[in-house]
Write a structure and sequence with these properties.
The protein is of the alpha+beta class. It is built from six helices and eight strands. The structure holds zinc ion.
Length: about 210
């Protein structure tokens, strides 16, 4: 079985995604890329994470062909695929419909630097313009709004986070959801103070040094 290790990890993180409340039911999707082989494993369309097995995951190439797997790949396969083509720093992608990121996306707002933790994604997280789910237009919007960042909010939809590993991408999705939650509560309570660019650049440098990211 191709990309067996990656498929097993998708099953593990998929379950975790439901348990931690980042998605409900069959929502969201994940993938992991083997850059040497030029292939990625992605979760299938419409199978609950509690029933998902490694053999249900689909292996695809960067042209969008299914290389191995019986199932239909996730409808957002192009978003994952384009990120692997465009971003050399991303080898894993986690896409969620987590509540607070989706609230921001519904307001068509990004997440400003309301917490130093946002530096794990970049200076801020932008909101990509709306396009229907599963379209190449959505994939392109996501990739361009994610430029210089490792996460992007999708208008009226959810969040996409990338990383060198699934663990990194998954942790980032959790961190950004938590920051979005605090930011929205802060907006309801008063006026959030946003950290200056200089401070965020310093945090980005520190995180890169301490966590070995690019
Ligand atoms: Zn989605």
């Amino acid at each position: 079985m191709l990309l067996e290790k990656e498929r097993k990890a998708l099953v593990r993180y998929g379950r975790q995604m439901v348990e931690s409340g980042l998605v409900k039911g069959t929502g969201g999707n994940l993938s992991a890329f083997d850059r040497k082989k030029g292939l990625f494993a992605i979760t299938p369309s419409g199978i609950g994470y509690d029933q998902l097995r490694p053999e249900d995951c689909v292996v695809m190439d960067l042209e969008g062909n299914v290389v191995e797997g019986e199932r239909k790949p996730s409808s957002e396969k192009d978003m994952h695929r384009l990120l692997y083509i465009e971003r050399e720093d991303i080898d894993a992608v986690v896409h969620t419909h987590s509540t607070y990121c989706t609230v921001l996306g519904t307001l068509r707002e990004g997440l400003p630097a309301s917490s130093y933790l946002i530096a794990f994604a970049g200076p801020d997280v932008r909101c990509a313009p709306y396009a229907s789910y599963g379209t190449e237009a959505l994939a392109r919007n996501a990739v361009s709004a994610m430029e210089g960042r490792s996460a992007v909010i999708l208008a009226n939809h959810g969040l996409t986070a990338g990383g060198r590993t699934l663990d990194e991408a998954y942790s980032l999705a959790e961190i950004i959801e938590e920051c979005a939650k605090v930011y929205i509560i802060a907006k309801q309570t008063g006026t959030p103070v946003i950290l200056p660019e200089e401070e965020m650049n310093d945090m980005i440098r520190r995180f890169q040094g301490e966590y070995g990211q690019k």
